[in-house]
Write a structure and sequence with these properties.
Strand content: under 5%
Distance between the termini: 30 Å
Number of strands: 0
Number of domains: 1
Shape: elongated
Number of helices: 3
Largest sheet: none
């Protein structure tokens, strides 16, 4: 997995964490039976796990970007092209 892949995985994990947190907030509202409480707790744990994994991938993406040497800023390199792709921008022609 390279830097851009870690960046995209961090974004995916963040979205997963948001979905799990939203589910946890909705699950069992107004109902306090043990099954609803267990589902809600499991959803919060899933949200926390996804958030943690997202942070890990974000740090790895940052480390990969930081480790790139200025002499390597050639748009012809596959990883540089992937950084442009995940950022949703086109490299300068000039």
């Amino acid at each position: 997995m390279n830097g851009p892949d870690h960046f995209q995985e961090a974004e995916r994990c963040a979205a997963e964490a948001d979905e799990a947190a939203e589910y946890a907030q909705r699950e069992g509202q107004g109902r306090e039976n043990p099954e609803d409480q267990a589902n809600r707790a499991a959803a919060w744990r899933a949200a926390e796990h996804a958030r943690g994994m997202g942070l890990l991938h974000a740090m790895l993406a940052q480390a990969a970007a930081t480790a790139m040497q200025p002499s390597q800023y050639s748009t012809g390199r596959p990883e540089i092209a992937r950084w442009y792709e995940v950022a949703g921008v086109k490299p300068d022609a000039g």
